[in-house]
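Fold this sequence, please.
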Amino acid sequence: MQKIDLGTNVFLYPMPVTLVGTIVEGKVNFMAVAWTSRVNYNPPLLAVAINKRHHTNKGIEAHRAFSVNIPSLELLEKADYCGVVSGRDQDKSGIFEVFSGRLEGAPLIRECPLCLECKLFQVVTLPTHNLYLGEIVGAYSEERFLTDGKLDIIKMKPFVLTMPDNNYWKVGEVAGLAWRAGRNWKKGS
């Protein structure tokens, strides 16, 4: 099968849709961000890439804190709104019911199935983006999103983004067991 050269401006599939929360100039602000990932085990670190032009940068840098909230499908329109409208132009503080954890400057969204509270660990300055590394200092959910004490992706109903087609997708079903499925594979089979 012939591979086709797609160039270099490609994206990983899929990207989790998150809402990054900050306080900017005294106002709660949320921004939709899909360029996020867990990047370290201990301490637990997340990476969030945000274009330098975005209003959210001010809040993260001023408070040295931010939240990463995972919205459910029911919040898709509100989450998308937070990505297309800047807090510079519109007050986004009333979109969600907000609660606080341990850190000032990291507003959390009560409606989201998972809310992570992060203390700024490091900023990596890239040509177009700032890569914020945040240490998770609090993680919040509800019993209704758990099965056997663990987060349940089906109950959470998160959604993902693909680019450059700019579509949101639902999460499907289990395809296999991580760190187990490969044990049955034999070289040469």
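Residues 15-184 form a domain with the Pnp Oxidase; Chain A fold (CATH 2.30.110.10). The chain is about 10% helix and 40% strand.
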